[in-house]
Amino acid sequence: MTARIIVVGNEKGGSGKTTIATNLAVLSALNGIDTLLVDADPGQKSSALWASHRLEGHPDYPRISCVERSDGRTIGPVIEDLATRYQTLIVDTGAVDSPALRACAMVADTLVVPVQPDALDVWALPTIANIYDRAQQLNPKLQARIVVNRILHQSAERAPAELREWMLQETPTLATHPFTTLVARAAYGRATGEGVGVCELKGRELDAKAANEMRAVYEAISQ
Ligand SMILES: Nc1ncnc2c1ncn2[C@@H]1O[C@H](COP(=O)(O)OP(=O)(O)OP(=O)(O)O)[C@@H](O)[C@H]1O
Ligand SMILES: [Mg+2]
User: Which residues are in the CobQ/CobB/MinD/ParA nucleotide binding domain (predicted)?
Assistant: First the structure.
């Protein structure tokens, strides 16, 4: 039995990779799944920092182990080895078209692509689509999930449809996979800063809409 391997990747910086990877790890752990978060972003170590905040600030919350691995030459076999010891691996990658991201896509089950619906993010999509296409040729089980992130509340209906329309023309192999959306909400940054997921915020900090959106992303990835 090997783990499901979920890689969160997009070479566009700030698209929401770490936010989504950490929240997926929380939801997976809350579902009783033995989950490992892999920080493959050597520059920032954001997921690793999040995990250590979690351990220090919330030792009573479900434990999420995090390891750092980023060497593009070795990360593929290392991930496959780790996959024999956990039920789910969630890999947060860096904001570069790195050998590590390509290697992770080669062994993954699902590539989660966060994208903000503004021009500069959208124009960068062909790069990740190319990584997906190449990986998929050698790893046919690889699926993709698009997360339209940080959309403005007023364009929550329109933006994903417009993005899909554009992608059908420019990145058709990614466009046919399921889309989910996350509205721009302060709760995401707050949760990350506390080492928790949006679903774990409590009292006045809890934002039920954010929690529900993230659960929908998790459900889409679980299918
Ligand atoms: N849906 C959202 N609403 C509001 N803020 C968000 C949302 N998603 C992400 N952010 C914020 O956007 C910023 C970038 O997010 P994040 O660090 O997850 O992106 P990233 O893709 O991991 O960045 P990098 O490429 O630098 O690794 C963070 O400050 C995060 O809190
Ligand atoms: Mg990051």
Answer: 6-181
